[in-house]
Write a structure and sequence with these properties.
The chain is an all-beta fold. Helices cover about 0% and strands about 50% of the residues.
């Protein structure tokens, strides 16, 4: 990768430049730093290999399934993988149909890139909700695009019996 940098910042005798890596390929990259003074003298100052990572972790929901009916305490499980660095944090938001985030839960890595957290549906109105996953890697790349829709249903069904009436006999005609 050949980039020409024309200016930097000097502070306390140290020169620095901010490099936007968005245009670079992900993976290990070689960088050579050359310094040139005002007289045109050039010096190879430094050669380094550094990891470029502009890619957010991938998230795949394992449970609940899309459209699942949830009641009581249910577990949210997702597989979260970062191909270049490691996952720093995973959180799950419960969002109502008006788009308001009602609850944020932190996922715990239970091994093998498997993040889980319990969701207690008690106290939430019955209805359709979105569970959104947010995964950060150690460089701050965030995946905020994975979500599923679920139904919270904490109301028990009501049943009534019309016939036969209490304390009556029923027979089938022959």
């Amino acid at each position: 990768v050949a980039l020409s940098l024309f200016s930097g910042t000097i502070s306390s005798g140290q020169w620095s430049v901010l490099l936007d890596t968005k245009g670079l390929a992900n993976g290990m990259q070689n960088f050579t730093f050359l310094t040139t003074d005002h007289a045109g003298n050039t010096h190879n100052t430094l050669f380094i290999t550094a990891l470029v990572d502009n890619q957010a972790p991938s998230v795949v929901f394992n449970t609940p399934m899309i459209g699942a009916n949830l009641t009581g305490i249910q577990f949210i499980n997702a597989t979260v993988i970062d191909a270049l660095t490691s996952v720093s944090t995973v959180s799950f938001n419960l969002i109502n149909s008006a788009g308001i985030t009602l609850l944020t839960l932190q996922g715990t890595n239970s091994g093998s890139n498997f993040y889980t957290t319990p969701l207690n549906t008690n106290g939430f109105s019955d209805g359709i909700y979105t569970i959104a996953a947010f995964a950060n890697d150690t460089l701050g790349n965030i995946n905020a695009s994975e979500n599923i829709t679920v139904v919270i249903d904490t109301t028990a069904p009501q049943a009534s019996l019309e016939l036969p009436r209490n304390n009556t006999f029923v027979s089938t005609p022959s």
